[in-house]
Design goal:
This protein is of the alpha+beta class. The chain folds into three domains: 1-53, Arc Repressor Mutant, subunit A (Orthogonal Bundle); 56-191, no CATH class; 198-300, 3-Layer(aba) Sandwich (Endonuclease, Chain A). Helix content is 46%, strand content 16%. It has a four-stranded mixed sheet with strand order 9-12-13-14. Strands 1-3-2 form a three-stranded antiparallel sheet, with helices on both faces. Strand 2 (40-44) and strand 3 (47-50) form a beta hairpin.
């Protein structure tokens, strides 16, 4: 019996649930006897640990995830600390559970009852079920300052292959009025505008346009107007004379280049081009609305030829 339990527990920092024990044919009566003779320790209702297993913060987190029941996942700083050595694990483990879970708030952990845990992109890190990194950052934004969230994003980027696109996706799929942490998370991403590569911004918009059924634009199309230098466009529909300009630069850089951009737009305008411009902040604030505007422009713009 003990060998069956140990095989499970050692993969989970020494912890296991009574549900897992039943699945390998071990009864709660046997578990009670093993706890009485010192081989096991009962940590909370439905969860035991091996007495020989070292007591670590990972074990405490695993215990709380198991205690929270089916579908529970580590999140917030508890999940981030598993990935990133710069982030300190919280004194109280943070666990997300489905809204339908009967788990009550625990004094030994922070339990987030979630309506949208299906969007969390779950995985397993060091044997512990967790939400995805972007979702963990979003949950870590609850009751924190923008600067604190930016610091966590920067720390994760130093240790993980995480793109701004993944963060923007997490913002958009979780966005709903009143969702805890969403406003701070959005402001944190907006504060990092200077770090967003234009190529990443283009990739996200191209993906969203394709999803919306918009005809694929030409990347970096070059326009030659008599008497002017060649002008390279970000995303273009040459037959419709639409030049979609995407600007991932921060506000100060845009101010410095505003005169040059206005002159460029005047030249294109005289040649019959329409030039909608969007910034990274526009995308964060209302990406769906932005894509819808572009789609309507492309759908209603008359054919003008190259």
């Amino acid at each position: 019996m003990f060998e069956r339990i140990a095989a499970i527990a050692w993969r989970q920092h020494g912890a296991f649930s009574t549900t897992q024990a039943r699945e390998v044919g071990v009864s709660e009566t046997w578990l009670s006897r093993a706890a009485a003779d010192g081989r096991l320790e009962r940590r909370c209702r439905g969860v035991y640990v091996l007495a020989a297993a070292p007591a670590t913060w990972r074990q405490r987190l695993m215990v709380e995830v198991l205690a929270a029941g089916e579908g529970a996942l580590a999140t917030g700083d508890s999940a981030l600390a598993l990935w990133c050595p710069e982030i300190e694990h919280p004194a109280r483990p943070v666990v997300a559970t489905p809204i339908t879970s009967g788990r009550r708030t625990s004094p030994s952990s922070r339990v987030i009852r979630s309506l949208d845990l299906c969007l969390a992109k779950p995985g397993v890190v060091d044997g512990i079920p967790t939400v995805g990194v972007a979702r963990a950052l979003l949950d870590a934004s609850m009751d924190r300052s923008v600067d604190a969230v930016v610091a966590r994003i920067n720390a994760c980027q130093r240790h993980l292959p995480m793109s701004f696109g993944a963060l923007a996706d997490a913002l958009h799929v979780h966005a709903r009025k009143g969702r805890p942490g969403i406003a701070t998370f959005r402001r944190a991403l907006a504060a990092m505008t200077a770090e967003v590569p234009d190529s990443e911004f283009e990739r996200l918009v191209l993906r969203d346009l394709a999803r919306a059924g918009v005809p694929e634009p030409v990347l970096h199309h070059v326009v030659r107007v008599d008497g002017e230098r060649p002008i390279e466009l970000d995303l273009a529909w040459p037959d419709l004379r639409i030049d979609l300009e995407l600007d991932g630069r921060d506000h100060l850089v845009r101010l410095q280049t505003a005169r040059r951009d206005r002159q460029r737009d005047r030249i294109l305008g005289r040649d019959g081009w329409t030039i909608p411009r969007y910034t990274w902040l526009d995308y964060l604030e209302d990406g769906a609305g932005m894509i819808d505007e572009i789609a309507r422009l492309v759908a209603t713009r008359p054919f003008r030829g190259c």
